[in-house]
C-alpha cells in the first residue's frame, strides 16, 4: 500500500473549516476515494463535528437576569433621579410649578419695599401710615403694604397689613377680618387664600 | 440588533442600570451555553455567566465600540471559565502536557471506553459523552471548539475574542477536532 501524502489530514481540516481551494478539494476527494484509512479518518471527523454541533442547548435559570441585576453595584443617584422624573411626569410638572410659585412669592415678598394702599377713599395718609379718621366710613377692603394703619373710624370690609402694624382705636370698627402679615409663611398662606377666593368667585353664579 | 445594543451601551455608560437588563436578556443564553460547555456543570456555569455579566458592566468603560459587543462579552466569559477550570483542577498530573503535542494532556490521550455503541442510541447518554469529551480537552482547545461549534462563530470572530492570530485559532481547532475524533469517532 502506498503511503498517504502527509498533508491529507490538513486538507481534511481545511475542508471542515470551509477554507479549502477547489484544487485541494479535488486532490482530497481523489485520495479519499482510493484510501480506506483516510476515508475512515475523514468520516470520523465529520461524525465528531456532527455530535458536537447537535449537543443540546441548555438555558439558564428563569431569574438569571434578575440575579445579575441584583448583584450589580449601585448606580449613581443622579441617574436614578432623572429616570424617576421621566417615569412620573405629572409629579415632576406639579413640583416644578410649585417651586416656581414659591420662588415668585418669595421675590414679591422681598421685592416690594414700597408703601402702597389699595384705597384712597376717605382715608388720610401720613408718611407710611394710613389713617381712617374718626367719623369716616370706608366701604370695601383695605390692603396696606409696607406701612401701618390706624383705624379711628369704621371700615366695612377686611383690613390686611403687610409688613406693618395695625392700630385699632377704641372707637374704631372693622366689620370684616383684620390681619397683619409679617412672616413669609403668612404671606404664602395669604396668597394661597387669595387665589382660592378668586377661583371660588369664578364658579359662583352671577 | 447591533444598533440596539450600541444604543443601550451608551445609556449604560451614562449610568442607566436598567438598560443593562436588556443586554443581559439578549446574551444570557449564549453566555450561559459557553460557560456550561467550558465547565460541564450547570451550577458553576450559572455562577460564572453571572460573574461575566457583572464584570462586563463594571468594565463597560473599557469596551471599545469598534469590536462587536458579543465578542467582548464572550472574551470575558471565556477567560472567567478558564480561571475557574484552573482553580478547581483536581488531577493536576493528568493535565501535564504530553511532550511534543503542544498542549495535549493525558486527558486527551485516554480513550473513552465507558460507552458501548448500543448506549449511544440513547440521546441523553450521547449528550453526556459529548460533553465529557469536550471537558477532556485542554482549555485552549476547548475554548476554540466551543466557540466554533456551540456558539457557531467564524474563525475571524474567534480570533478577535481570544486575541489570537487566525492561524493559531485554525491550528487549535484542527488539534481539538483530532482529539475529539479519538473519543467520539468510533461511536
Question: How would you describe what is shown here?
Answer:
- The complex is a heterodimer of chains A (206) and B (187).
- With 206 residues, chain A is α/β, with parallel strands linked by helices.
- Chain A has 3 domains: 8-53, no CATH class; 73-111; 116-203, no CATH class.
- Chain A has 7 helices and 11 strands.
- In chain A, strand 2 and strand 3 (129-132) form a beta hairpin.
- The longest helix of chain A has 23 residues, at 89-111.
- The mean pLDDT of chain A is 82.
- With 187 residues, chain B is mainly α.
- Chain B folds into 2 domains: 2-88, Rna Polymerase Sigma Factor, Chain: A; 93-184, Arc Repressor Mutant, subunit A (Orthogonal Bundle), CATH 1.10.10.10.
- Chain B is built from 9 helices and no strands.
- Chain B is globular, with a radius of gyration of 18 Å.
- The A-B interface holds A 9-10, 13, 16-17, 19, 41, 43-45, 47-49, 51-53, 55-61, 64-65, 67-69, 71-73, 75-76, 78-79, 83 and B 14-18, 20-21, 24-25, 28-29, 32-33, 36-37, 42, 45-46, 49-50, 53-54, 57-58, 126-127, 130-131, 134, 145, 149-150, 155, 170, 173-174, 177-178, 180-181, 184-187.
- Chain A: Residues 10-38 form the Putative zinc-finger domain.
- Chain A: It holds the Pfam family zf-HC2.
- Chain A: Belongs to the zinc-associated anti-sigma factor (ZAS) superfamily. Anti-sigma-W factor family.
- Chain A: This is Anti-sigma-W factor RsiW.
- Chain A: It comes from Paranoxybacillus vitaminiphilus.
Strand percentage of chain A, roughly? 15-25%
The fold-level CATH name of the largest domain in chain B is Arc Repressor Mutant, subunit A
Q: Total strand count of chain B, please?
A: 0
User: Helical segment tally of chain B?
Assistant: 9
Number of helices of chain A: 7
Quaternary structure of the protein: heterodimer
The backbone outline of chain A, from C-alpha atoms, is rod-shaped
Number of domains of chain A: 3
Write the element-wise H/E pattern of chain A from the N-terminal end onward. HHHHHHEEEEEEEEEEEH
Q: What does the radius of gyration of chain A come to?
A: 46 Å
CATH architecture of the largest domain in chain B: Orthogonal Bundle
CATH superfamily of the largest domain in chain B: Winged helix-like DNA-binding domain superfamily/Winged helix DNA-binding domain
Domain Putative zinc-finger (chain A): 10-38
Protein name (chain A): Anti-sigma-W factor RsiW
Family (chain A): Belongs to the zinc-associated anti-sigma factor (ZAS) superfamily. Anti-sigma-W factor family.
Organism (chain A): Paranoxybacillus vitaminiphilus
